[in-house]
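Subject: Protein record for review, amino acid sequence with backbone structure tokens
Why sent: The fold of this protein is of interest and is recorded here as tokens.
Enclosed: The protein record, placed directly beneath this head.
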Amino acid sequence: MNDLTDAQLVRLAAQPGPHREAAFEALVRRHAGRVHRVAAGTVGAGAADDVVQEVFISVERHLGGFRGEAQFTTWLHRVTLNACHKALAVRRHLPLEDAPEPVAPHNPVQAGEQADLRERLAWAMRQLPPEQRDVLTLRELSGLDYAEIAEVLGLELGTVKSRLNRGRAALRTLLSGIGVTP
């Protein structure tokens, strides 16, 4: 299954048959990391696992309706952003116990500083308007280019660029206001 393209896996996973489950699992393995990065950057590391689970539940339910007019990854990013928006609407603020695990347990001071920085960044991202947060997440966390972001969000290229510029400026202001030098 790992040798198949996304389009081939989607076709197999969307139809009843002996390969349906294996094809869907291959899609999950291939894209879960990317979905998690987007979710963690949007809702915070503590809520990202729940969002990833919701994304793939939604993908499984609606895969039959995927028309293939866009790439699967484009559709998946849209589903991910929708799940992130839903999670943010339910949980406006993450509790401190949801802060990310320290990256370097052998250096508690550095690990604590990194966890604090990630939590501050997640807080600042949650303060942005959704349209700015979405373009920043897709560009900085997913690494999509401007044209791909435009396709995912259904926007003009100029709109993507201006939202990205405004989002970066707002994020810089928010971070500076809480003592983080971007």
Notes: Confidence is low (pLDDT under 50) at residues 93-104. Residues 20-43 form the longest helix (24 residues). The chain is about 70% helix and 0% strand.
